[in-house]
Write a structure and sequence with these properties.
Blueprint (H helix, E strand, L loop, with lengths): L17 H4 L3 E2 L1 E6 L5 E6 L2 E5 L4 E7 L3 H9 L1 E5 L6 H6 L10 H5 L3 E3 L6 E3 L4 E14 L5 E16 L4 E2 L2 E2 L7 E3 L6 E3 L16
Antiparallel strand pairs: 1-13, 2-3, 2-6, 4-5, 5-10, 6-9, 7-8, 9-10, 11-12, 13-14
The structure holds flavin mononucleotide (FMN).
Length: 206
């Protein structure tokens, strides 16, 4: 037996299971800047990496929020790695505040100028990707009905990695203490090396 439902008719459960099923998700902690130079910072867990070379990352905004508006204006953004140490600040930066309010100041984070984009990076974050907008896609239903949901894709033109996360040149994923978003109003997960397992692809065994 399984529980089946058609999402367009409602899930019929106390909480929508979608985010709990597709999870835990990496967090797109996105900094951007308006054309007037106002700084912005917000987390997006509809986020992932979609291409190796060039690196293309993206996030989806439920509505035309400040991050999307800024990126549409300037064509630039930065992704900052959200870590366990920065979890409270990351969460605070999601507060709904008027356009133009600087979440760096709000959260007490340090704004570091980008080198290739005119966007501040979170200095406390051990990894930052400086990105240029490649596509801004309005999502739509299977019937072609346009949604007020926006997928932002960008090419990482510069990647900064804290030295201590590279051991003999190998990036140490767990050492960065990344945090991952799961379902419901509050669930997150962390990762650790004791949960790691390795498996090579069939094609790589030859
Ligand atoms: C962990 C976390 C993940 C979030 N993921 C998303 C998301 O994927 N899409 C979205 O539209 N909002 C998401 N939000 C809510 C936004 O962060 C929030 O609406 C924020 O105020 C948007 O800021 P902005 O208007 O400055 O872009 C998330 C919030 C948190 C705390």
């Amino acid at each position: 037996m399984s529980y089946s439902y058609q999402p367009r008719l409602g899930h019929g459960l106390p909480h929508d299971p979608l985010n709990a099923i597709i999870g835990p998700r990496p967090i797109g902690w996105i900094s951007s800047q308006s054309a007037q130079g106002e700084r912005n910072l917000a987390p997006y867990s509809f986020f992932n990496c979609f291409n190796y070379q060039p690196p293309i990352i993206g996030f989806s905004s439920q509505g035309w929020k400040d991050s999307v508006a800024n990126i549409a204006e300037t064509g630039e953004f930065v992704w900052n790695l959200a870590t366990r140490e920065l979890a409270v600040a990351m969460n605070e930066s999601s507060a709904t505040v008027p356009h133009g309010v600087d979440e760096f100041a709000l959260t007490g984070l340090t704004a570091l100028p980008g080198t290739q984009v005119n966007v501040s990076m979170v200095a406390e974050s051990p990894v930052n990707f400086e990105c240029k907008l490649t596509q801004l896609i309005q999502l739509q239903t299977a019937n072609g009905e346009k949604l007020d949901q926006w997928l932002v894709l960008g090419e990482a033109v510069v990647i900064h990695i804290a030295d201590d996360l590279l051991e003999n040149g190998i990036y140490q994923t767990a050492k960065a203490h990344p945090i991952l978003r799961a379902g419901g109003p509050s669930a997150y997960y962390a990762i650790s090396d004791d949960l790691r397992f390795d498996m090579t692809r069939p094609d790589a065994r030859k």
